[in-house]
Amino acid sequence: MRLKGYHAETIMKKPFIVGNWKMNLTLKQGVEFARLLKNGLKGKREVLCGICPSFVFLSEICKILEGCNICVAAQNVHSETNGAYTGEVSALMIKEVGCTHVLIGHSERRHIFHETDSFINAKIKTALSVTLKPIFCIGETLEEREAGRTKDVIQSQLKGGLRDIHADQLEELVIAYEPVWAIGTGKTALPGQANEVHSFIRNIVADEYGKDFAANLYIQYGGSVKPENAKELMAQPEIDGLLVGGASITFESFLKIIEAVSKD
Ligand code: PGA
Question: Which of 229, 238, 241, 230 is nearest to 194 (CA)?
Fold first, then answer.
């Protein structure tokens, strides 16, 4: 545990490290990973940890991790809680199998599946309505960064995604800043670059929801996080956790990331 964030002198946050497996692994591999993680994290109280398996693995993996403090998150959710939406999965279903969190607005959903801020906003509202905690992802593309539009993009994704949601509904919100140009490219944002955007996000949240809320908010960084850069990223005062893609699909490298941020 260490001091983090806004009013750093009063806020204690454990690093929150989440592995997003995306469309990878077999059920057998996922189950094996979950068992190893459960054992590997026994007694490690200084880090919060979670994994985002494929929908079809969730039920099995939630059973393995039941009762230990490793969160299981779905990678997506639909905005309606039930109905004629062939192929979609509802927040109630995700909750029922034992997940505590859900990724919403991941850049692959935004860019490959054309999800809009208003759809993302509806998903966040629905997740909150069934007490599923959203990990709300935002981030600019390379083109937007090079055009000097990073802050505009971040601000509009943030405002669009959180529209008409009040602070008291958002207690369990996590934000993940994931610059699109750093996702799966091997190009990590420089720790200082990431910290600057995190600080910008926290300030917007403070204006909207108050300083205490912003101080307590977890803001994760994601984009080519590896065992080699995890510690340096986590050392930034505004980075409260990491959302890890490629380096989270082998247990060994995910564990190395967790170990890198737990030793201080
Ligand atoms: P990456 O993905 O770590 O493979 O860059 C991060 C993410 O998409 O959440």
Answer: 238
